[in-house]
Structures
1.
Amino acid sequence: MPEVKSEASEILRGHAEHQFAEELAELEKQDKHQRPPSWRVSPRAVSTYLLGGKLPNGFEVTPKYIGSKRLMEIAIATLATDRALLLLGVPGTAKSWVSEHLAAAISGDSTLIVQGTAGTAEESIRYGWNYARLLAEGPSIAALVPSPVMRAMKDGKIARIEELTRIPSDVQDTLITILSEKTLPIPELNEEAQAIKGFNVIATANDRDKGVNDLSSALKRRFNTVVLPVPETMEEEVEIVRRRVESMGRALELPAEPPALEEVRRVVTIFRELRSGLTADGKSKLKTPSGSMSTAEAISVVNSGLSLAGHFGSGKLSAADVASGITGAVIKDPVQDLIVWKEYLETVVKEREGWKDIYRACRDIT
């Protein structure tokens, strides 16, 4: 008889509060520090959840963010006040990842999310209507459809707004009253929704994408901004890529061995050099491509390589498996970036000891 899998095991990517339910439950049990109203655990425990560590009973909490501890402490402390949090940074600096895990640890619910796009309307932030009931009964609480932000206000939870600067400026400003007065007027009913203690907002934004809408001064003042940098050291970035790739490989059930550390290091080296415009030894300046060459893209390249190795190769990640992913990540502009990439291959990769295989694989694809 075929093995019957539970519905949970079939989910491609579980929410943070489900993936790390054991860790959150253990933190809640061991936490002896003061908890702000409606918070599942204390700010100190949220920091341990994000950055990892060992609890008094020996339980090991895995790190979700590898980087500055102080930045995470500032972000967590902000959410314990009446100020909203804006996570700012170039693409691929784990803004959404941090936002999800903060909401999961604080509220036990990371799903109250508004995805910002050029087409995001006011209803996504305020509320909408069930038009069948509206026409049949007129405006009423029963006919009102609350937004994720409104639900977070009523339940004292964290609301997440992704890509805030992609949302049109007039829609962004819908947040001003919510963040300053902690109320959401419902003029059709002559009522208002008031926020319960524990409510706050985490927004993410980057200024590298085209088509962004700057925040108004009034809205900026209502956020405390934390800038998430790219990983500071090679070791930090290699560890981030390794951990995320192993985690995603298990979830996707890829039939390949976990990538060798040296292969991950080569991918990260290429990304860091092209991103900074300087070779790792600091001796040669390089032209930079138009793309961001982010850590998130490096993770994607290694993951795609594992899929190729598992399904069409030996099961062991090789230079040929990652070459197409790297080339695709670099060449966003088919004219300008192609010149940058070819020059980098000939002047850096070709001359580097032990890199002949990746040079040949990338040259053949290019």
2.
Amino acid sequence: MKNLLLTKGFFPESLLRPTINYILRTQLPNGCIPWFTGGKADPWDHIEAAMGLTIGGEYAAAQRAYEWLVQEQLDDGSWWANYLDDQPVDKNHRETNFIAYIATGIWHYFLVTNDEHVLRRFFPAVKKAIDFVLHYQSPTGEIYWAVAEDGSAKKDALVTASSSIYKSLECAILAAEQLGLNANEWRNAHQKLGHTLRYHPEYFDRTWEPKTRFSMDWFYPILTGVVEGKAAQQRIEHKWHTFVENNVGCRCVSDEPWVTVAESCELTLALLAAGEHAKAVNLFSWLHQFMDDDGGYWTGFNFRDQVIWPREKTTWTTGAILLAADALTEHTGAARLFISSSLINANTDAQLHTEH
């Protein structure tokens, strides 16, 4: 097995240059980054890959990726869930966490480049997206996971999706305040969402089976800053042996022998956020075995059958690799984006908790 142990200050540029180039080769002339050549694109995974380009110093290509999003953004600020050849695959739903994620991507770009001109140029698209998403925040704080074509909410919420939106709201607030704009409404929505995620699990998974068998429900609240400190470490420890397969990676679901590279990268980030640095370095070191000769990383591996599955190398997986490598080595100004929050709340969640 080929292990890759990363430390602060030593970003493996030559090793990961083919990985950066893999995203570049897959990106379409119009800026869209599909999952793989000939595959579909979705806003969330497109942005994950775009952040990989930014880490790789491919700023023009990253800007083209965000320009494609602006071009495809609907008048109400949203995007369809999936696209193929610039056409929506279906219009059955629009996922709120996909839509909010542009705030994370654009703020990430600013942290790497310190280019306020680009931040200002893309902020209107961020604002439209965030305002759309917050229209679907329920009175109890959670954010409905999807919106039908007619604009009606699909009235249930996911821990993972709402946690992702929590981080995107943080990024949107920071972007607005960097530009000297008032973000008080967004701050209030962010605090309300965080409060609900921490103290009201009953507001999620109300119309379907709980998603607790999915590893993302376990670590996303840590990755996105909902759960921090000692509580984050305890949360990691509680299900570590349920989801982590030694020398392989993080399972997608607890009852299947399948690890995914992207989720293992995101768990790496969550471990860093929880202060579990040694675990993060070790986990990420296992993933280098899934790098192909062209720089792409295989999406997943079935360790029971010892086979790559599916037989695809997704751009969002390579994006996740680059995000984790950046965080471990502190290579760019965005290295700590998923490790700690830069948002200082005017009213702490503890105060909100005492009011309820």
3.
Amino acid sequence: MAWSPNNSPMNLMQIMAQEKVQERAKNRTLNLRVRTIRHETPDIASFELVDPDGRDLPPFTAGAHIDVRISDKIQRQYSLCNDPAERHRYEIAVLKEPNGRGGSVAMHALAEGQTLTVSEPVNRFPLAGREARFHLLLAGGIGVTPMMAMIAELEANKRPWHMHYCTRSRDRSAFIERLEPHIAAGKVELHHDGGDPAKGLDIARALSQFEIGTHLYFCGPPGFMSAAKASVGAWPPFNVHCEYFEAPDDRPPAESGPFQIKIKSSGQVFDVPVGKTIVAVLRENGFDIETDCEDGYCGTCITRYVEGDPEHRDTVLSEGERKSYVMVCCARSRSPMLVLDP
């Protein structure tokens, strides 16, 4: 999943605590061999990654992803889509996007036997615990990848679930053979729209009612995510979990005018020009700022501000949290100066 995920809705302290733990895992790397490459559809390939010496890999839970260093200049995140009970391999799937940022094209150019450097698994899209009586999964296209691990874990634990799987056509539906038993059992519903979302799943209708104990998980392309996000008004936020593969397409324009940032503790003032992010300016001036997605959907670079009027472009912070915090990877400023307290 080239991805870009958003987390299930958590409050700020939960996000920050989780990030500290998962950052340590992300910084531990593994050198893994590409054992097999399988073409799931004409434009989706799955990659089986194993330890070259046959050793067990660090465990993971459903919803986890790994950072994959494809080259010195390209690093991407992909969901693990195999059974979390497996310790001998990781499996990821990648949609080839010729007009993307280059990561998926580079992945599709790999050959079996090559070695990749990856992080240990990190999970920002976990299944709910015992409080969940039922799990409802909505997968749009390549968004099915984290759902595959979820299904395996739910089946192993005998937890009730149902998935709506939305794709253009059957031949463009990844993992269809693996899902066949669940389709036959009525646990997976396929929705093929032929390229016209109006002919696919009626997401608003599917999510119009909330039943106590049900937890919702959705993942897919921007339009799919926007439709799902707009349809959960009846759902308690704690019961809704999502992961973005890329930044939502309804964010403000990518650029705005120049502004300044000031560091409260030192009084330093730096210019943030058009075309450069706050985090880039901070790094240029000696600040060590951790980032992951650099598009406002992972929550890694949460930073407090004390003055100014930020233009928020993330998908993580609640309206209340935006009164005190920004994501410095993507935020701009409407005011001439934004005072940060990193």
4.
Amino acid sequence: MKKEIVLATDHAGFDLKENLKRYLIDNDFHIKDFGAHKNDSKDDYPDFIMPAAEYISNNEAIGIIFGGSGQGEAMAANRFKGIRAAVFYGGPEEIVKLSRLHNNANILSIAARFVSFEETIKVVNLWLSVDFEEGRHLKRINKLDS
């Protein structure tokens, strides 16, 4: 059974979120969309990211969030207990893999101004395919979550 995937963004990532949402639905993923639900240049990312992160912290879900740089969005998400948001703004895909393998990232924050839809699909598929390695990394995750 595929996990529920939570999506959230502000205006900067709106189009990328909507395109990824269609792709994920077409590939039989269950989606919970926290918005934005329209492209409004005056919206603020905490209004969408924080409820999404809170939901993920209280449920067996993972998330993909978007923003211009992805940085502020990850910072907002990481304020919640149990959230481990990793940022991807292009570059080596190994970073995305390691975020799951070693850090058990449960949110991937994508920099919409720097990552194309094609690259997003590629890294999301990679991110979703990697499981947490546990082992020596588990005690570190437990320290973060305590």
